């Protein structure tokens, strides 16, 4: 059975959008000759013929733009208002892109034909989603209510309870906790009793599901607790206390036939990773071609300004802690890394500050390049190689990563980028190893739409030169 929010439904939606876009374009071509009957001032046309390639480009463009704005992502389209907003925005953005393409390649296409096509397509794409939602609502059987008891009111148990309440629409109903700890019972949480009272609470509250979410120090109680649950008519599940151990996200998986918990599950799923890589190749490739003349001028200026190589190669820490060689235009005197200790400072909290605006190692041309971030242009080749992404946390220096606290390493859960949320909200004014929270915000809220927003903000931040040194 096709589930409403699934990969198969997303693929079906993409196919439906492509077909309806093609239908809207064809219908507009058929309707254009009849428009003078309603608007006599329009130039009459007996027949309209469009180039065949437009019938291919239009559906592809619409689906691509809707992908970029996350119109097929269940996390962003669960509510009707959110889905319609994204589809409407995506349709308008695709229409603007299509209009620009027609202006550059097929100016003979009637403007009224384009208006008809855009109107039909907008109506079709919103219309079929409205009908689908109504049919789903009318045909869907209400979910069977399942009452859930959580054993353990600590951090793990509270996370489980939040998840149950978040997915209450599936029929889950959170009953309360069982916990032996007086502190947890006194914090206003719905603790219904101690672990020894599990049988009484299950019978009195008519519990169907029990989730054991005890902290690691309470695992000694598991044997007796599981034995007691075996005698009760409930489904029992255990949530291991791995939150403190996981680098970013953990998941259960099968490893050579053995069930295990992966403590370094990627923050991006396979679909998100595929779309991000396609975005990097397409947009990064176009940016590289456009930047080649600028890079040639910059290389010449560096060569004339000071002795030493044009490119600066430095080892950085990438996704999952993998080391790679990052490229930049040289902005300092040759051998500047050997003078790093003379520049490093320690603030009042004991944090190392390794960058400052009056760094004596920066050359005259280098200061200009840093002012407008032109020294970062060679990193486009890192993007094309797959070492980096256009958008993501900045790749850090290995010696600084060695001083990271464990929670800060979560910033390496995604591909490192040329620009990111931290850069457009502070740049060098906020050393990245002291503001990992910005990188974690990006990871937790990742979408292609957020990448586009960051790239757009990066343009203005670079032009203003804020925090660049």
Key words describing this protein structure:
469 residues, two-stranded antiparallel ribbon, alpha/beta, single chain, four-stranded parallel β-sheet
What does this structure look like?
The chain is an alpha/beta fold. It has 3 domains: 7-139, no CATH class; 146-241, Rossmann fold; 270-464, no CATH class. 46% of the residues lie in helices and 12% in strands. The protein has helices at residues 7-31, 52-68, 74-77, 80-105, 111-139, 155-166, 182-185, 198-204, 222-230, 270-305, 340-343, 364-371, 379-385, 398-401, 436-444, 448-464, and strands spanning 146-151, 172-178, 209-212, 235-238, 251-255, 258-262, 311-317, 323-329, 345-346, 352-353, 389-391, 417-419. The strands form 5 sheets. It has a 4-stranded parallel sheet with strand order 2-1-3-4, sandwiched between helices. Strands 5-6 form a two-stranded antiparallel ribbon. Strands 7-8 form a two-stranded antiparallel ribbon. A hairpin with a 5-residue loop joins strand 7 and strand 8. The longest helix is centred in the middle third of the chain and has 36 residues, at 270-305. The chain starts with 6 loop residues before the first helix and ends in a 5-residue tail after the last helix. The model has no long low-confidence stretch (mean pLDDT 81).
């Amino acid at each position: 059975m096709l589930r409403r929010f699934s990969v198969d439904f997303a693929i079906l939606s993409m196919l439906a959008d492509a077909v309806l876009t093609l239908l809207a374009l064809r219908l507009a071509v058929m309707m254009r000759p009849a428009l003078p009957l309603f608007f006599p001032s329009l130039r009459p046309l007996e027949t309209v013929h469009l180039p065949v390639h437009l019938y291919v480009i239009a559906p592809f463009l619409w689906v691509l733009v809707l992908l970029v704005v996350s119109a097929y992502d269940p996390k962003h389209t669960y509510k009707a208002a959110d889905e319609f907003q994204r589809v409407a925005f995506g349709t308008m953005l695709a229409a603007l892109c299509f209009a620009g393409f027609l202006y550059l390649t097929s100016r003979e296409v009637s403007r009224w034909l384009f208006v008809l096509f855009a109107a039909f397509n907008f109506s079709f794409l919103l219309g079929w989603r409205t009908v689908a939602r109504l049919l789903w609502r009318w045909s869907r059987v209400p979910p069977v209510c399942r009452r859930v008891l959580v054993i353990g009111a600590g951090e793990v148990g509270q996370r489980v309870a939040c998840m149950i309440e978040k997915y209450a629409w599936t029929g889950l109903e959170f009953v309360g906790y069982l916990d032996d700890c007086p502190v947890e019972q006194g914090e206003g949480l719905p603790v219904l009793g101690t672990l020894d009272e599990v049988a009484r609470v299950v019978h009195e509250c008519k519990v169907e599901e029990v989730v054991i979410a005890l902290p690691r120090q309470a695992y000694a109680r598991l044997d007796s607790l599981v034995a007691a649950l075996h005698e009760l008519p409930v489904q029992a599940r255990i949530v291991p206390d791995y939150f403190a151990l996981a680098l970013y996200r953990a998941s259960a998986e099968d490893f050579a036939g053995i069930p295990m918990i992966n403590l370094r599950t990627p923050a991006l799923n396979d679909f998100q990773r595929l779309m991000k890589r396609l975005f990097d190749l397409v947009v990064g490739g176009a940016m590289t071609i456009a930047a080649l003349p600028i890079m040639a001028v910059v290389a010449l200026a560096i060569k004339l300004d000071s002795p030493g190589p044009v490119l600066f190669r430095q080892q950085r820490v990438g996704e999952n802690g993998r080391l790679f060689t990052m490229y930049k235009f040289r902005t300092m005197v040759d051998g500047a890394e050997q003078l790093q200790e003379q520049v490093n400072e320690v603030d009042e909290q004991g944090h190392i500050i390794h960058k400052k605006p009056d760094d004596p190692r920066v050359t005259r041309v280098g200061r200009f390049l840093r002012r407008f971030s032109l020294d970062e242009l060679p990193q486009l080749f890192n993007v094309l190689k797959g070492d980096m992404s256009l958008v993501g946390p900045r790749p850090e220096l290995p010696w600084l990563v060695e001083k990271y606290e464990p929670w800060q390493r979560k910033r390496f859960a995604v591909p490192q980028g040329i620009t990111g949320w931290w850069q457009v909200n502070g740049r060098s004014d906020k050393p990245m190893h002291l503001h990992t929270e910005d990188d974690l915000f990006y990871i937790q809220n990742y979408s292609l739409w957020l990448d586009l927003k960051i790239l757009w903000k990066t343009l203005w931040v670079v032009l203003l030169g804020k925090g660049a040194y």
